[in-house]
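Annotators were shown the component list below and the corresponding predicted structure, then asked to write short factual statements about the assembly.
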Amino acid sequence: MLSENDYKKLTDPESVALVGVTSRSGKGSNNPLEVMLEWGYRGKIYPVNPKGGTILGHQAYTSLLDVPEIPDVAVICAPRDAVPELFDQCCTKKVKLVIIVAQGFFDGDERGKSMQKEILKAADKHGVRILGPNTLGVVNNFNRFCTSFMRFMNPTAATGILCQSGVSVVGAPQIFSGIGLLIDTGNTTDIEFSELLGHIVRDPRLKVINLHMESLRDGPQFMRAARDAVALKPVIVYKTGASPDGAITASSHTGALAGEDRVFDTAFKQCGLLRVEDVEEMIDLNKVFTTFNGIKGNRVGVVSISGGAAIIAVDACSRYGLEIAKMSGSTEDQLSELFPAWAHCNNPVDMWPAGMFHGYHNSYRRILEAFMEDPQMDAVICITGSFLDKEGDFLDTTELIREIAGKYPEKPVVAWTYGQRFQDYAREFEKENNVLYFYSIDRAARALSALYRYHHIIKKKDYRPVSTPLNPGQAQAGKILAGKSAGNLSQTDVFRLLESYGIPVARWGKAENIEEAVSLAEKVGYPVAMKVLSPDIIHKSDAGGVRLNIGNARQLEEAFTEMRREIENKQNGARLDGVIIQEHLDKGTELILGCKRDPQFGPVLAFGAGGVFTEVMDDISLRVPPLSEEELTEMIEETKISKILAGARGATAVNLDVLTGCLTKFAQLVLANPAISEMDINPLLAYADRVVALDARITLDR
Amino acid sequence: MLSENDYKKLTDPESVALVGVTSRSGKGSNNPLEVMLEWGYRGKIYPVNPKGGTILGHQAYTSLLDVPEIPDVAVICAPRDAVPELFDQCCTKKVKLVIIVAQGFFDGDERGKSMQKEILKAADKHGVRILGPNTLGVVNNFNRFCTSFMRFMNPTAATGILCQSGVSVVGAPQIFSGIGLLIDTGNTTDIEFSELLGHIVRDPRLKVINLHMESLRDGPQFMRAARDAVALKPVIVYKTGASPDGAITASSHTGALAGEDRVFDTAFKQCGLLRVEDVEEMIDLNKVFTTFNGIKGNRVGVVSISGGAAIIAVDACSRYGLEIAKMSGSTEDQLSELFPAWAHCNNPVDMWPAGMFHGYHNSYRRILEAFMEDPQMDAVICITGSFLDKEGDFLDTTELIREIAGKYPEKPVVAWTYGQRFQDYAREFEKENNVLYFYSIDRAARALSALYRYHHIIKKKDYRPVSTPLNPGQAQAGKILAGKSAGNLSQTDVFRLLESYGIPVARWGKAENIEEAVSLAEKVGYPVAMKVLSPDIIHKSDAGGVRLNIGNARQLEEAFTEMRREIENKQNGARLDGVIIQEHLDKGTELILGCKRDPQFGPVLAFGAGGVFTEVMDDISLRVPPLSEEELTEMIEETKISKILAGARGATAVNLDVLTGCLTKFAQLVLANPAISEMDINPLLAYADRVVALDARITLDR
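Structure shown to annotators:
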């Protein structure tokens, strides 16, 4: 982990060496020294350039080794091929923090990758930490420290930013409405989000933290850091690079359904991160979190110049989970006298009729003041027009709204204005930082909703991870798995493994031929089910390898013969090891419990509707374990099938404790046995007071 | 229907009377004469004001009757209470088209509603057509005819607009990037969208038509007009006022699932309308349709200054159904020499490494030109920076992009730029109307996708409605329904009705007591199902009124007694008319066929996953009949359960002709029998080559 001292050196260094900096300056030179001077960094700067001389008034050293002190940070700003040698100089000089700007390493060809590996090896040996490569580095707008070689503007805002791409650096003045402190980890070969997050979130100058994430090395480590962070401040995450093709080769239902982006999404939700879908949502959420300190609830008042726009506001609030406030009696009394007898005075208020009778400004003022005083309203959306140039517009209430909003700093006021001059009005609205303008009412509602979600749901929830005790059956399970080769575990071993963990399996036995099958069925008791045993068949029913509700020995014999024939047709050459004979069970609710091992997050659990509809209905919830009781319950309730489990449509309600108990054992099993790469129990049959696994499959890791 | 002549009078009148116009002018006077003069309308204007005199240099008549000719249009611009008398003057004067501006009629109190009814009665008698009330009227920017009393700007664009609220009128310069021709139908008590659409879509000056809809009187009439319109031009619809509470009181599954907004959504899709979700999507779609004449396909090239932004573009294209184009071999050859050996030259192109070696402008130009020449690319997204003021920015490629785009008018070029100065760059991009700037890459992709959808899917599809022949069973069905009172039709009548239309029902009979039940079961053949018959029980399984798989007479007797007891517990007092005994059927795929009668659209059909999961899974597709074969197939394929019907997961595939045949009969039944207000066949069991109704319910209208 990056120590606090190292973090401080990285973001607020007293001295910095620019190793390999160009001697050119001006347009197109991409000279980071020039940018640093323009920004006004006040620490010591040591340019290093083999030609020496003077660069922009600063003496240049021909080697880093000649620099008269050990700089806090070295920025290697030379092209790729010069990097290894310059990095060696950093190691020799005992610089502890090195920013590598160049592209072409892990993001380039084979040569770049091997250069990168050599550098990492040297870093490890000398205790050097690397930011990058392929990064613009650090931008700290509080001390004007900026390592970017690209010039851009530097408005200060209370936003912290961790990113992996230059678009979030030089685009920051737009995307985050400015920069407080930004760190670009580039290819992220060493220093990563997880270790930076705990530091940046504790910076008292920042009100909101942003993550623009392209990839992640260690999911669980990141989740720990994120859970810790959201207790302190809102953390917005923009994850790009969703790859819908990622899950195509999965061998299990869970593998097929739990695609890469869906797992990220689950992990983000589990940590209380606010995930945004695009750049504009990131812009809006940064505005709302840097402007407002909170919101008391989700009840919204709407003051509109237009009835049609008021309807849009109702739709928008409903879409984003806000309530249209019911105005209090005293507000209603105060306002009704403003309106003609035929007009309703409800929230949302179409204030036009009042304006016609009592003057537009006067009416707008009285309504908005009443709303701000009304304890039933937690925020107000103001809708106005921008039909004309401001000077000529007698309907311009921008200043009035700003003035009233300023008196109630605890109640967010947001605005939408429509008309050709909306951009001018937008600027006016935001002039004193107490009203926010949004480009649409939907975006205003979305931003208020995020404010509500953070302050009333996320910040109040306990996101601390729980620990999962070892299941007493692990010794037995370990024996079953010992020495097993990669690939599909045999059906008999799968059942034994479940049973070792206390997960009930429908009564079963193995038979290698017709005779054994008949004698086994007598013991199990008719009717029985028969399923083929084959290391080559994963989806048994697809291959014709399942027969249900077999009533007697004669039917069993026929079914045995016919099943062989069908499998030969459908999957010729599949090895057949016999059959499983299993008790027939009354129809319960078919569920799936699944697990896949994700490259970033490790085991990911799936729960949902099972049986033949599993993939078709895709009614699945995911979670990264370990999970608290509360999270297990949420996981179940997130699915549609949970309504059936709760007794909807005349179904028998299922005891949820039994189900969460089974989920817990399942989680224990996959956490304690990393060899399991994919696993489905499908169907798991749920009855009023028990659950039973009817079928299951397990794939072991290669 | 509004005749072409009347439409022309309404939108392009030679003379207009402003009846009840105020004599005040200037700020806050809301004088439509002032606005009309400001806009420069060149027809004859007759102000009418009881005080006479001169208004803004125009002689005012004390009564409309004194005006020296019959004006093409009269605009009544007096407050509500003065309207009836002024409307009488219009009738006496034989004005054929009257615009009523005032609020407070159907949108107001009881008095307003009855005034409105009187006016409509008089209009009917005198053959007068009314636009409004509660409207700003007509804005025609081609002849500068504008009846709005609110002042706003008037940039001209090739957009046609039909709306029901002032927000779309005075907001039009922003929302539609200007106005070509706009008609605000206000409360829409007479002239409505359906009759205006056919006229406005044929105006050669307009490239795109917008509907901002709050309500609709006659759904089928609107659908006919919309289907006709989309064959000519893209029609965008923004429907506001979705009421999620609308469906709560429904008595059937279909009623519960087919909420008001979902029915609108279905109808819009069936007509090929492009529905937008918010104001910003409307802004974007208007820009794209007024700027580009088409797009050849959905394969997109991306030229980006940033690798991170290129990743965002891939996500955005995937989200909106666009393909990232594979560049042709010759493009690859041309471009690879621009890049250093370690860099990949793929689409999307991160052009930065090329820029470092071959100059930024030169590289951007060569890449973009190659993409524009590449026949594998149908559109190009350009991503640039706006980090600095344009004058100081050596990375500014705005002009270069505009210049190249101008040479290839058939290939849309859209742009996103990020940085604090994005608005300045945006204006520059759009200066010559050949490049469009979007506020995010997602919005750029969404707009291109709409362009593709219209030109490649909607315009090429045959949306003409089909006719549905009468089912030969209608005579019999009519007899069954004759004289039936409102409420639930008895189970036996429901089954007979289905059978009369040729919809197969599982073999059944009615029994009034245990003895009859046993003797009936002998005839039907064990195992059988038993279902309670009661006019008071709608959801039989919820009430405990269903027993399945009864194997013999003893079980039947027990089940009969126990069922009575359970129903007494669950729904005490329900009248019991006996039971239905029905054949036991092997498990097929459970489907639902449903219908609800929508107040706007009439019968709406539902198809999807049936059984106990119907409402929980909500896997339903809706359609407004009549339907072509193609639409029936689409309706089935839209559901998830259709994958099971197609044979997924080892299921037996179902013959789709049999299913569409059954759907056709179902559609015939509800179309020919308007007394049916809600109906479910659930489950309809589907097998390889037949479908069978196992249960069904019908509610007749009150």
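Statements collected:
1. The CA atoms of residues 219 and 600 of chain A lie 5 Å apart.
2. Chain A has a mean pLDDT of 94.
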